[in-house]
Design goal:
Elements (H helix, E strand, L loop, with lengths): L4 E6 L9 H6 L4 E8 L7 H20 L4 E5 L2 H12 L3 E5 L4 H13 L5 E5 L21 H10 L13 E2 L18 H7 L6 H12 L5 H4 L13 H5 L5 H7 L4 H23 L21 H9 L5 H13 L4 H14 L4 H11 L5 H12 L14 H8 L4 H6 L8 H6 L15 H23 L1
Parallel strand pairs: 1-2, 1-4, 2-3, 2-6, 4-5
Bound molecules: flavin-adenine dinucleotide (FAD).
């Protein structure tokens, strides 16, 4: 066996800087640096399009530093095993992830590898190791604010710069990027990607640009029509082109003015913390009883929602923004999620799956968290009885219908007040409202009562 030889596996940490596990691997004499595409661990087509470009830029950056990125496709544990055996490495490094699937894949490796091979997971993707943050009763937090306060008090590691002392092992067979089959070559995909610049370089640039506007976050964050409403950093964070540690480090001299935005970055951390501590939430609500919340399976409603043809302009605008750009403003994500769950009474899992398919920033933990928050079954979630009224949401956050008109050009010449109220729109080629919000709201509340009664019955 080659002495002092390592293998590093990229996952959702597609960056050279602040990648402690990569640096550790490169501190050995020789190193294999690999990305394994495991179809089980992938998002949908939109995030695959992003991944394709991101990997291509990552592999260029590595090549400039004399390192070949080995690409493989298959089950994560199998491919790691193959690479480790072929290159006869004695250390395997990766950055720990909250993903239950990836955790179990790496867990399974222990039993199958030669016992001389050291498996070394590193805390390189999050602000602080998840095990260290507990309530006074030694259980994981389920409420954000005390979690946030605890996290703030804890020391954080400093971002580390890329360091290479190893000779890259490049004799191993590698697939080409195209052989990974991530790109769809469909027109919509090329058009969607026009909105974005993946890769570590652009992630850093986007962060630096956004920080100039961070002080106005509190006043702009709920106005989706603004050119700069929020940072749009989420796809970079979700693919790990930049780390939350790097984000916090950039904000170090402006703590007070950046606090509202920093809290949002910590919401992401909280979502990963919860998935880590409660891996079952990838399958069922954190509040388990919500798995039996009464739902209706109405494919026609679901299709209208997916296509942005519900006749509720703020909902349709959001769903069309998602389709065209792979991204949707957070305020609008909350509105469309509430609409699917509480106006259409569809299973929240249907919405979760559609977002997984269509978001460039698809992030398992944040998506699960967002959908469970909206359905009332998650941690610190919005109570089910809080039902967003699409009309008042649009009136408050898009009063001139600027955002709506941008995504629903059929309504360009309609009066903003009519758009907001979904009235007098028959003259435009736009669907009538698919349902009556007031009636469905009452129905949702009746379903909630039925649900509560069924829980009481179970208790007695
Ligand atoms: C139903 C639903 C599903 C969601 N699915 C995802 C998802 O798959 N991937 C994803 O990255 N975000 C998801 N979010 C969270 C949030 O909508 C996006 O992170 C945010 O809109 C990204 O825009 P931004 O980068 O401009 O955010 P900013 O407002 O600039 O915030 C900065 C960063 O903080 C994090 N963040 C902000 N808000 C949240 C939040 N509510 N929860 C978790 N992290 C947050 C993101 O990483 C974001 O990039 C979801 C929210 C909802 C309601």
């Amino acid at each position: 066996m080659a002495k002092n030889s390592s293998l590093f596996i990229f996952q959702k940490d597609l960056r050279l800087d602040d990648n402690p596990a990569l640096n550790m691997a490169l501190s050995h004499e020789t190193a294999v640096i690999a990305y394994i595409l495991d179809p089980q661990a992938l998002g949908g087509q939109a995030s695959c399009e992003w991944l394709h470009v991101s990997l291509s830029r990552l592999s260029e950056s590595l090549a400039e530093r004399g390192i070949k990125l080995i690409l493989a496709k298959g089950r994560l544990s199998e491919e790691v095993l193959k690479l480790a055996r072929e290159a006869a490495v004695d250390h395997i490094y990766w950055n720990r992830s909250s993903s239950p699937y990836q955790r179990s894949e790496f867990q399974g490796l222990k039993k199958r590898l030669n016992q001389n091979v050291k498996l070394i997971p590193i805390d390189g993707c999050y602000l602080h190791p998840f095990e260290d943050i507990k309530t006074q009763s030694d259980s994981p937090y389920k409420v954000f604010t005390p979690y946030f306060n605890s996290l703030l008090k804890l020391p954080k590691r400093k971002p580390v710069a890329f360091q290479n002392g190893a000779k890259s092992i490049d004799r191993l067979a590698s697939l080409s990027l195209d052989e990974l089959g991530l790109r769809s070559k469909k027109k919509w995909a090329a058009s969607m990607m026009k909105s974005w610049q993946p890769g570590e370089f652009h992630a850093k640039k986007a962060l630096k640009e956004y920080i100039k506007h961070v002080e106005s976050y509190e006043s702009s964050r709920n106005t989706p029509c603004l050119e700069i409403s929020t940072s749009k950093l989420s796809p970079h964070l979700s693919h790990g082109e930049i780390s939350p540690i790097q984000v916090l480090h950039e904000l170090r001299d402006m703590r007070s003015t950046s606090l509202p935005w920093m809290r949002q970055v910590v919401w992401r951390e909280f979502a990963h913390y919860l998935l880590w501590h409660f891996p079952n939430t990838s399958l069922e609500p954190l509040k388990k009883e919500y798995a039996s919340f009464p739902v209706e399976l109405n494919p026609a409603f679901f299709e209208a929602w997916q296509k942005g043809l519900t006749g509720f302009p703020i909902v349709d605008a959001g769903m069309r923004e998602l389709w065209h750009t792979g991204w949707m403003h957070n305020r609008v994500r909350m509105i469309v999620a509430s609409f699917l769950i509480k106006d259409m009474h569809l299973p929240y899992k249907w919405g979760e799956a559609w977002f997984k398919d269509t978001l460039v920033d698809y992030d398992e933990a944040s998506n699960i968290f967002g959908w469970q928050w909206s359905s009332g079954g998650g941690a610190d979630s919005q109570p089910y009885y809080r039902i967003f009224n699409p009309e008042s949401q649009a009136a408050t956050y898009d009063p001139d219908a600027t955002y709506i008109k941008n995504w629903i050009p059929e309504l360009e010449n309609a009066n903003p007040k009519d758009i907001i109220r979904s009235v007098n729109l028959e003259v435009f080629p736009y669907p009538k409202p698919i349902l009556h919000h007031g009636k469905e709201r009452l129905k949702a509340l009746a379903l909630l009562e039925r649900f509560k009664k069924s829980l009481n019955k179970m208790e007695f």
